[in-house]
Amino acid sequence: MKDKITVITGTVGVDAHVIGTKIVSRILGEQGFNVVALGAQTPPEEFIKVAQETDADAIFMSSLYGMAELDLQGFKEKCIEAGLNDVLLYIGGILGVMKHDWKEDEEKFKRLGFDRVYPPEADVMAAIEDLKQDLRAKGKL
Prior knowledge:
alpha/beta
């Protein structure tokens, strides 16, 4: 078992809204996780590359510009191709444009392969507790 759980964080695509990912990164670090913060405007491929290099256990993505669905088409499949079959995928934020039903967004991103999907007003500590629960279920914590 590894000494520390590694979590990759960042804002996906050309989204420059970085405050949410900075908050998540800081709290994860305070909770004892090894955090690799990629920051804003991170291409999906960069998440995969860094997850491979660091043997990451989870990827936490944020997106507030509403285009994450386009950015992340085939992302889970690319993770699997890269040997990241077991990496946990989390995303939160404003995941669609225009007014729409949050449940539909959640279902859409789960179909895309994300383990957890959070609305913009999600409680960061609750998301971290979800991560701990998911890691325990995989025998990593």
